[in-house]
Amino acid sequence: MKKILFVVTSHDKKSNTEEPTGYYLSEVTHPWDVLVNAGYEIDFVSPKGGKAPVDGFNLEDSINKKFWENNVYRNKVEHTMKPSQVDASQYAAIFFAGGHGTMWDLPQNEEIAEIARKIYEANGIVSAVCHGPSGLVNIKLSNGKYLVDGKRINGFTNEEEYAVKLENVVPFMLEDKLIARGARFEKSGLWQEHVTVDQRLITGQNPQSAHAVGEAIKAELKK
Fold this sequence. Notes:
- By secondary structure, the chain is of the alpha/beta class.
- Helices cover about 30% and strands about 15% of the residues.
- Helix 1 (about 25-35) runs parallel beside helix 8.
- The two termini are about 15 Å apart.
- InterPro entries: Class_I_gatase-like, DJ-1/PfpI, Prot/Nucl_acid_deglycase.
- This is Type 1 glutamine amidotransferase domain-containing protein.
């Protein structure tokens, strides 16, 4: 059984503010729980490698607590691989976890984009949740087209960005950028669970969608 590669951000500040950010813990743990229970092994990569900054640190969430107390996976997320250490052929799927930090370092990371392209073109799955689709905006396929071009997709919506009052802090609005790349953006209301599946591309709108994204990845892997 091939493994699944989780991508997390290395970026720990919201723009030039001192407000901390990073990967959003439940957006890692909820898909992780589904996929590990299904028998998959998960590895972690980040743009810089090493310890990934964490946001949304809430151990009252039982799944977060389970992950954080799992020595193997806690060690993995605190010692993430660098992109140069990843062999794309080992993975059946790649998953971009969200958190605002992703908006600053994932779009520009050509190495991770290339890993995702290889996995996708080897009939694997590309998936993301919340701000994680920021890592998809610059992935180009071998034919020169953007991965998201013409595909149904979702992610953190403009309305949700305005609701958290970060529309002037993020480097771009994720919904607008995906549409500019040719994606057919879908959305539900604020904080509603919404998962979109189109041609081995699986995306979820917000933290509330993280578990369902894990379930969708599991279902697609079974095909």
